[in-house]
């Protein structure tokens, strides 16, 4: 059903957990629908130094979260905001058509954490 | 190292009995003839179908002439609903927790002009006879309530429900797919008019199933254009599968009590031992009056598909009613009808044991499932909220997700 890459990220997810004293946090999805992702980020000089996630969801949702965190670390804020859901699905070697909404959630959750960071910057 | 394989999804498919296989082989090899043929090639196939009909009838306490062979329980259910409704108009009643092969034909009939009532169930998945009494109208043309539910194991009081329907002279159908092979079934005592079940329920092959029709019941054929099955189901018989069905029914009739007793004992081990290894479990369906060898449980904060994939990595085959495991991406209609919140239904795990299940298999499950759940809970934002003393389900209020799932972007 899933590509080897999806199964690898599902079995050995990278960067699970939460950043301590995060610079931004984002949560998307809902347990009602079966998928919920929570991302936290650390930003230094406009670069994502650390990205951590917690995900409630199917194999695809967990693999997508893991891949998003791996892809995002080291990217500038601008680069990370430009990451699309399609990019994530492509990096995973594709997802079954009915699971693409999971990859949509992944990038959305990262972007939500970045927006939270940017808002805090504005306030400061 | 050889992986330990534990199959706990007998509701989806069952391993073939050796006796069934043996009965099938001649009809896959030399005995290819058509049971309807006048010439010699038709003789053995014809005899095999007759013999199988007697054995299948014997399993459920029916007369052979009441049994017709179909290709699947889904076909039997479609035949029952559409066949009973044909030539009539008015109102039909099905329970809300039926298999989709009953629900969908019922909804098709509703589109064609019938009024449809989907009977509610209680929190344990049981249809209350008084709710059927209240739902029946003078123009009700059929009632269909499954004998036992495949997802939560609830066994219905079919004899009482059929009595209620007959009091008002309404024909009664029951889908026995989940019940046959786990419970002793005596159709005479149950009093149903029409009853569906499959060879798969009794460790027979795929491609053969049965529809019992009580003599005198007015029911139209689904497949027309031939005189087979006493003009009730056209099409050359699947002789090999039917022969396998007969052999499997005969063995099952003889062994059922032993198998069910052992399956119940093994399921009881899961019911008692799993909660000592994992917290936040919600067992669904009735405690008593449930199918032998059937365990349904919600494992809070862990989505069903993630659990199934991880179990599969440990060689364990199981099922779930979560939306991510369904092709339709809809969460189990059965759990929702019982009043479970979506958040819980997404975490469902269904284990259906079989005659081949052993203590070693249950040991393997009890050893492997807890670390899987603990790993996935550590990854779950819901569990993190719980540990922080927050409401894990705060975000659930007023959520709507149909759009999330139907908006599929091309990658």
Structure, described:
The complex is a heterodimer of chains A (124) and B (411). Chain A has helices at residues 4-11, 59-72, 77-82, 85-91, 100-123, and strands at residues 24-30, 35-44, 47-56. Chain A is globular, with a radius of gyration of 13 Å. In chain A, α2 (59-72) packs across α5. The longest helix of chain A is centred in the last third of the chain and has 24 residues, at 100-123. Chain A is an alpha+beta fold and 124 residues long. Chain A has a single domain (4-123), classed as Sufe protein. Chain: A, CATH 3.90.1010. Chain A has 5 helices and 3 strands; from the N terminus they run αβββαααα. In chain A, strands 1-2-3 form a 3-stranded antiparallel β-sheet. Chain B has 411 residues and is of the alpha/beta class. Chain B folds into 2 domains: 6-11 and 258-399, Aspartate Aminotransferase, domain 1, CATH 3.90.1150.10; 18-252, Type I PLP-dependent aspartate aminotransferase-like (Major domain) (Aspartate Aminotransferase, domain 2), CATH 3.40.640.10. A 7-stranded mixed β-sheet of chain B has the order 2-8-7-6-5-3-4, sandwiched between helices. Chain B has a 3-stranded antiparallel β-sheet with strand order 9-10-12. In chain B, β6 (172-175), α7 and β7 (194-198) form a beta-alpha-beta unit. Chain B is globular and about 75 Å long. The two termini of chain B are 39 Å apart. Chain A binds chain B through residues 2, 7, 10-11, 13, 16, 18, 27, 29-38, 54-62, 85-86, 89-90, 94-95, 97-101, 103-105, and chain B through 301-306, 309, 313, 322-325, 327, 329, 331, 341-343, 346, 378-382, 384, 392-393, 395-396, 399, 401, 404-405, 407-411. Chain B: This is Cysteine desulfurase. Chain B: One of its GO terms (molecular function) is cysteine desulfurase activity. Chain B: Pfam families: Aminotran_5. Chain B: Keywords: Iron, Iron-sulfur, Metal-binding, Pyridoxal phosphate, Transferase. Chain B: Residues 6-362 form the Aminotransferase class V domain.
């Amino acid at each position: 059903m899933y590509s080897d890459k999806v199964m690898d990220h599902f079995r050995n997810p990278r960067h699970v957990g939460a950043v301590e004293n995060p610079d931004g946090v984002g949560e998307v999805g809902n347990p009602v629908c079966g998928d919920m992702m929570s991302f936290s980020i650390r930003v230094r000089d406009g670069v994502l130094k650390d990205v951590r996630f917690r995900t409630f969801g199917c194999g695809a949702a967990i693999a997508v979260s893991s891949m998003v965190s791996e892809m995002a670390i080291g990217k500038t804020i601008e680069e990370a905001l430009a990451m699309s859901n399609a990019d994530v699905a492509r990096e995973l070697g594709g997802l079954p058509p009915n699971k693409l909404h999971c990859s949509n959630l992944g990038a959305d959750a990262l972007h939500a954490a970045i927006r939270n960071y940017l808002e805090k910057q504005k306030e400061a | 190292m050889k992986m330990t394989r534990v199959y706990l999804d007998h509701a989806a498919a069952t391993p073939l009995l050796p006796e069934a296989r043996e009965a099938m082989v001649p009809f896959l090899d030399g005995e290819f003839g058509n049971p309807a043929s006048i010439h010699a090639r038709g003789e053995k196939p014809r005899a095999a179908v007759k013999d199988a009909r007697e054995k299948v009838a014997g399993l459920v306490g029916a007369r052979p002439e009441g049994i017709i062979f179909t290709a699947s329980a889904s076909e039997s259910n479609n035949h029952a609903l559409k066949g009973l409704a044909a030539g009539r108009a008015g109102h039909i009643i099905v329970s809300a927790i039926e298999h989709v092969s009953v629900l969908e034909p019922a909804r098709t009939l509703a589109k064609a002009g019938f009024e449809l009532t989907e009977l509610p169930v209680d929190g344990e998945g049981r249809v209350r006879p008084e709710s059927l009494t209240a739902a029946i109208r003078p123009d009700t043309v059929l009632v269909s309530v499954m004998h036992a539910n495949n997802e939560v194991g609830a066994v219905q009081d079919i004899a009482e429900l059929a009595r209620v329907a007959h009091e008002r002279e309404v024909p009664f159908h029951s889908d026995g797919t989940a019940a046959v092979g786990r419970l002793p079934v005596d159709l005479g005592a149950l009093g149903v008019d029409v009853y569906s079940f499959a060879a798969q329920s009794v460790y027979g092959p795929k491609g053969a199933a049965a529809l019992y029709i009580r003599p005198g019941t007015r029911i139209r054929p689904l497949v027309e254009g031939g005189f087979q099955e006493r003009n009730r189901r056209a099409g050359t018989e699947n002789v090999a599968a039917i022969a396998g069905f007969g052999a499997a029914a005969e063995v099952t009739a003889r062994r059922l009590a032993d198998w069910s007793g052992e399956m119940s004992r093994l399921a009881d081990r899961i019911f008692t031992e799993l909660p000592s290894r994992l917290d936040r479990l919600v067992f669904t369906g009735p405690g008593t009056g449930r199918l032998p060898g059937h365990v349904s449980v919600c494992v809070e904060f862990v989505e069903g598909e993630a659990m199934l994939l991880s179990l599969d990595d440990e060689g364990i085959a199981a099922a779930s009613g979560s939306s991510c495991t369904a092709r339709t991406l809809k969460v189990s209609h059965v759990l929702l009808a019982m009043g479970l919140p979506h958040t819980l239904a997404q975490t469902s795990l269904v284990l259906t044991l079989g005659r081949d299940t052993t203590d070693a298999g249950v040991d393997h499950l009890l050893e492997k499932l807890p670390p899987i759940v603990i790993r996935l809970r550590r990854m779950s934002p819901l569990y993190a909220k719980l540990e922080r003393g927050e409401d894990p389900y705060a975000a659930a209020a007023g959520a709507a997700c149909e759009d999330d799932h139907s908006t599929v972007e091309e990658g």
